[in-house]
Amino acid sequence: MKDLRRNFLKLAGGAGAMAVTVAAGLLKPGSAWAAPWNKTAFESKASADAIKNLGAAELVESKDITITAPDIAENGAIVPVAVTSKIPNTQNISIIAEKNPFPLAASFDISAGGDAYVSTRVKMGQTSDVRAVVKAGGKFYTAVKEVKVTVGGCG
Amino acid sequence: MAEPMKIRATLQGDTADVRILMRHPMETGTRKTASGVVPLHFIQSVIVTHNGKTVLDAQWSQAISRDPFLGLRVKGAKLGDKINVTWTDNKGDKRSDEVAVSAGT
Q: How would you label B75-101 residue by residue, b for 16+ Cβ within 10 Å and e otherwise?
């Protein structure tokens, strides 16, 4: 009986969360359609899977992508990373910290004609490559920069 | 519930330089305290609009640092244009703040 009640509560909780999500979606009519959170890509544990789940089958190395990040980050909890893409029609910039437990850190959709520049701060568990994946005109481009981490910032 | 963001939008030529500082714990779900593991709690989505038109639609993971910073540039901005930022976290909390583009120094 007790177990049944637990299950019921769980179910009810789940349904409630769903309702909130749906309501949140409906509450912003008129604004641009926001893509749902890419759960599969964000929960990928290998950077190759994360890239695949972003929809990129093939990556082309590009010198038109600039990653601005420190060579050595003393504190892995705050690593400033900025990505600039000079590729025309840049639609999306994703930031991947390759050796993090969940490598994909962020994915930015840039509206048409927008400036292809984003800057943020990410956590890094250990020294690894930071990869930027840029989607432009249906193709995917990439660039890498290594960041040495003195003290890890996960956990 | 959520604390206000700090947003600064300054005009440089015809581009607004927007810097946003949000207040959020951004828990990774792996941090342990005396009372156990702190559950996953992070901002999943950030939407930046310029006079109501979306310019940046970001999806984040828990790997973004605590009290997240976001910097971007908005093309074709004018003095007084409205820059609105809305974030939503994995618990459904959200916060929206708006500033007007001010003159750069």
A: eebeeebebbbbbbbbeeebbebebeb
In this prediction the pTM is 0.82
The CATH number of the domain holding residue A79 is 2.60.40.2470
pLDDT in tens, B45-73: 999 999 999 999 999 999 999 999 999 99
Checking ipTM against 0.95, whether it exceeds it is no
B6 pLDDT exceeds 90? yes
- Looking up residue B59, the CATH number of its domain turns out to be 2.60.40.10
**Domain residue limits at A19:** 2-31
Q: Which residue of A has its CA nearest to B67?
A: A121
User: Number of folded domains in chain A?
Assistant: 2
Nearest CA in chain B to A34: B57
Q: Do B71 and A106 touch (CB under 8 A)?
A: no
Of B53, B56, B73, the CB nearest to A108: B56
Segment (H or E) for A19: helix A2-26
Residue A155 lies in a domain: no
Tokens linked to B76: 């074709």
